[in-house]
Amino acid sequence: MNNIAIIGTGAMGSVYAALMADSGLNIYAIDTWADHVNAINTIGLRLEGASGDRTVKNITAATSLADIAPCDLYIIATKADGVADAAKLVSEHMRDDSLVLTIQNGLGAGERIAQHMDTGNVLLGVAEGFGASMKGAGHAHHNNMKQIRIGEMNGGETERLDALVALWRNAGFNANGFGDIHQLIWEKFLCNVFLSAPCTVFECQIKGILGNPENLEVALGCMREAYQAGKAKGIKFSFDDPDAYAISFASAMPEANPSMRLDHLAQRKSEIDAINGMVPVVCAEEGLSAPFNQTLAAVVRQKEARF
CA 7 to CA 32: how far, in whole Å? Predict the structure, then answer.
């Protein structure tokens, strides 16, 4: 598993690409941002932050998968609304034995991929505690680097899962494999819901949630609605105190901005539909209401209508 294409080399995709290429893997960075692609190909990809400061020059960047040969592994690192299109492109270029790993915020990535390919070779990932952002074309930064969690979409522990975990670890990531990745996706979902729309609506960094009792109560209200939906769907969370879990997660990176707020600062539409906007959807499926998330999602969408 040496030839790897990373589709979507924004902040998180750039972290993956830089560290994996630095470990000796043959990395292809696929992105529609032409200036970013050109910068990677001419001067290299600079990554600074928790993993140090390096410029990696052995990455091949392109704007289309059609420009490269079929790969052993495809990592889909787009925003949630780009997963379906990325999966369609991958399905047209992958080999029968190629693996696909998708890592997004929110819920529904696996289902979007299933629209375009059989899920037998699909794995799901959860990136925890990175706080990544783009400084410019060819330049990414990340505040932290806690863990990459990976699991088979269809469940179970397999040799290829072990091999994939080893690949990430060799690249310097704290990576672990899990038999039930859906539990972990939901646990990260709670953290996304806790911080994304609240930081965006209140226009603050994470510390602006933790340090303001009124903001914190609204953010916890959002997270609790998601937690109740997960419990109703039979998700076996690894904790009994969701408030403590969410606050502990956020406390590790108080200076960070969630990607949703970064999108708004750049006047870009966000992943609201896959995060806070998804909570009313999954709550309705279980006969529950989600007034906190419904309200904040409406405010975020109204902000985005002006972009």
Answer: 9
CB 147 within 8 A of CB 174: yes
C-alpha closest to that of 290 among 105, 298, 258, 108? 298
DSSP 306: T
Question: Residue 76's domain spans which residues?
Answer: 3-179
| d(C-alpha 247, C-alpha 210), whole Å | 8
153 and 238 within one domain:
no
Euclidean distance between the first and final Cα of the chain, in Å?
41
pTM: 0.83
CB distance 171 to 22 below 8 Å: yes
- CATH code of the domain covering residue 206: 1.10.1040.10
Q: How far apart are CA 39 and CA 185, in angstroms?
A: 33
Question: In angstroms, rounded to a whole number, what is the distance separating the alpha carbons of residues 279 and 107?
Answer: 9
User: Mean pLDDT for each consecutive 10-residue tract of the chain (307 residues)?
Assistant: 95 96 97 97 96 96 93 95 93 95 88 91 89 92 88 92 97 93 92 97 97 98 98 95 96 90 93 95 97 98 95
Radius of gyration of the chain measured on its C-alpha atoms: 18
Place of tokens 């911080």: 195
